[in-house]
Amino acid sequence: MSANTVLYDHPGPRARVRNAVLTVIFGVALAGLLWWVYAKFDQAGQWEGALWQPFTEGATWTQFILPGLRQTLFAALTGMVLSLAFGIIFAVGRLSERRWISIPAGAVVEFFRAVPLLLMIFFIFYGVPFLIQAPVPAFWAVVAGLTLYNGSVLAEAFRAGIRSVPGGQAEAAYAVGLRKSQVMRLILIPQAARAMLPVIVSQLVVLLKDTALGYIVAFPELMQRGVNDLAANRGNIVAAAIVAAAIYIVINSLLSALASWLDQRSQRRGFRAQRRIATGANPAGGIAVVEPQG
Predict the structure, then answer these.
(1) How far is CA 147 from the centre of its chain?
(2) Do 131 and 223 form a contact (C-beta atoms < 8 A)?
(3) SS3 of residue 235 by DSSP
(4) pLDDT at residue 177, as a whole number
(5) Which of 68, 22, 43 is CA-nearest to residue 224?
(6) Structural domain boundaries in the chain
(7) Which end of the chain is more exposed for a tag (fewer CB within 10 A), N or C?
């Protein structure tokens, strides 16, 4: 019996009726809200063909939307990789038994979690040049801000995931002679990443959307190129914002679908591994059942 079966009670007849009624009510309310938004936009003339005509031209996409989308994805992928590395390193640092490591690591994580991301990007772009006596490119200002903020959030997620792994896992690893670094790298972090996968993916989706804050330093991402610049040169800002929002929704949906696929695959691999541990083939060709050790 799976954990989902144990923790979830199937609804009875009354609960099914109640859920169906609530679904219909909220569906009708949502449809009404969408119709109200559509009607208000229609009264303002936002659905006129002339306002949407630029999006049927190739130049709109090749000069504004696609270059901005490319910069957005590049900044997001770079920030994702660096944030994951930052999160793992500082999660391990916070769990260190050496206080001269855990205390500074905790201070760094708490500080960057508390500072607003927009303020962080602004300071890196405009303030850091006074310290290093050199300009900071807009790309690296955005990526650094994304890394510090989202990496700090991921550090807490990894730390919670590592602590959620049963203590017997580490004890068994120590018993067979593994060092603490090997236990962390081979046993705890992989299981923590699998357990915290929904949280990690949610934070990566937030990171992707936060690239839009790069407009504060004129970083040419999708918000800047596909909305501000496009509206100023070829189209209506409302239409441009709707198109950009649709692009963000598609990308984030694909990222969520990828995460669901990875989660299902890891669960299947974990189930197969448990079956191999519980029933292993013996040299004589039969099945050897591993008895639990008390």
Answers:
(1) 12
(2) no
(3) coil
(4) 81
(5) 68
(6) 1-37, 57-281
(7) C
d(CA 247, CA 277): 45
Q: What are phi and psi of 70, to 5 degrees?
A: -60, -45
Closest CA to 87 of 214, 206, 203: 203
CA dihedral 193, 194, 198, 202 (to 10 degrees): 30
The alpha carbon dihedral of 173, 174, 177, 179 has a sign of: positive
- 36, containing H or E segment: helix 13-43
Cα distance between residue 217 and residue 196, in whole Å: 33
Query: pLDDT tens-digit profile of 228-243?
Result: 888 888 768 888 889 9
Question: Using one digit for the tens of pLDDT, what is the confidence trace for 179-199?
Answer: 877 888 788 888 877 778 878
Hey, which residues does 280 pair with through a beta bridge?
288
Q: Which two tokens stand for residue 59?
A: 């130049």
Strand partners, 287: 281
CATH of domain 57-281: 1.10.3720.10
* CA–CA distances in Å: residue 79 to residues 90, 119, 125, 159: 16, 17, 16, 20
Residues of the chain with pLDDT under 50: 1-6, 277, 281-294
Please tell me the distance from the alpha carbon of residue 203 to that of residue 151, in angstroms, as a whole number. Answer: 9
Q: Is the dihedral of CA 39, 44, 49, 55 positive or negative?
A: negative
Q: What is the pLDDT of residue 186?
A: 82
- Amino acid letter, residue 78: T
Angle, vertex CA 151, rays to CA 146 and CA 156, nearest 5:
145
